[in-house]
Automatic annotation (TrEMBL):
Its cofactor is Mg(2+). The active site is at D8 (nucleophile), D10 (proton donor/acceptor). The record marks S113, K144 as: Important for catalytic activity and assists the phosphoryl transfer reaction to Asp8 by balancing charge and orienting the reacting groups. GO terms for molecular function: beta-phosphoglucomutase activity; magnesium ion binding; sugar-phosphatase activity. The keyword Isomerase applies. Mg(2+) binds at D8, D10, E168, D169. Its EC number is 5.4.2.6. GO terms for biological process: carbohydrate metabolic process. Binds 2 magnesium ions per subunit. It comes from Mangrovimonas cancribranchiae. Substrate binds at residues 8-10, 24, 43-48, 51, 75, 113-117, 144. This is Beta-phosphoglucomutase.
Length: 217
């Protein structure tokens, strides 16, 4: 019995939201826009372009196309300065336990992330070889909650959508998995991720027995 297991990156495998926060805050403040943690929450799972559009809207700013591109590049350079310092110690607790269990039991594993930096991050934390397929922000034209990212992942794993399981920390990501007709597993706050089929605070709450049952389903 083989199923496709598709992992989101930020908030599921690593906590890069804290680096997105530092980089977006610096950028927003440089154009006299305030930026706080609550706003950063609303950027989870949202693409880089959409994130900057939201920040400009919050600050009531309108800028030229050229300036928009230059601000995006600035934010990403700053973000990458944090990413470049990442290591294996930043993998979230018990993620390797689940990845190893899946691998040992011949399950298909993919990444489904909105980030254009996903491959770089996986290399930094030494997990790139754990994924048979990687679908990231460079491969999709429609952002979550559109199911495109996960449907491409399923295809690359040669699995039907209904035989795929998605781990996601964002509401949009859970919605994308549900629309794709996949089993959705929320990682985070149960009040926020209530649309998910199953919800866990983090991977320390997920037992290998639970995964075993999912595979049988
Ligand atoms: P980048 P995920 C998402 O990653 C982040 O949650 C989101 O905050 C970020 O804006 C987006 O990636 C794009 O990232 O600027 O690196 O292309 O949660 O889908 O893995
Ligand atoms: Mg995420």
């Amino acid at each position: 019995n083989t199923k496709g297991f598709i992992f989101d990156l930020d908030g599921v495998i690593v906590d890069t939201a804290k680096y997105h926060f530092l980089a977006w805050k610096k950028l927003a403040n440089s154009i006299d826009v305030d930026f706080n943690k609550e706003q950063n929450e609303q950027l989870k799972g949202v693409s880089r372009v959409k994130s900057l559009e939201k920040i400009l809207a919050w600050g009531n700013k309108s800028i030229s196309e050229d300036e928009f591109m230059s601000l995006m590049a600035k934010k990403n350079d700053d973000y990458l300065s944090y990413i470049n310092k990442m290591g294996e110690d930043e993998i979230l607790p018990d993620v390797p336990k689940i990845l190893n269990y899946l691998k040992t039991n011949n399950q298909a594993i993919a990444l489904g992330s909105a980030s254009k930096n996903a491959r770089k991050i996986l290399e930094k934390v030494n997990l790139i070889s754990s994924f048979q397929a990687i679908v990231d922000g460079n491969d999709v034209s429609k952002a979550k909650p559109d199911p495109e990212v996960f449907l491409i992942g399923a295809k690359l794993l040669n699995q039907k959508p209904e035989n795929c399981v998605v781990f996601e920390d964002s509401v949009a990501g859970i919605q994308a998995a549900n629309i794709a007709n996949m089993i959705s597993i929320g990682i985070g706050d149960k009040n926020v991720l209530h649309e998910a089929d199953y919800i866990f605070k983090d991977f320390t709450e997920i037992s290998t027995d639970f995964i075993k049952e999912l595979v049988k389903k």
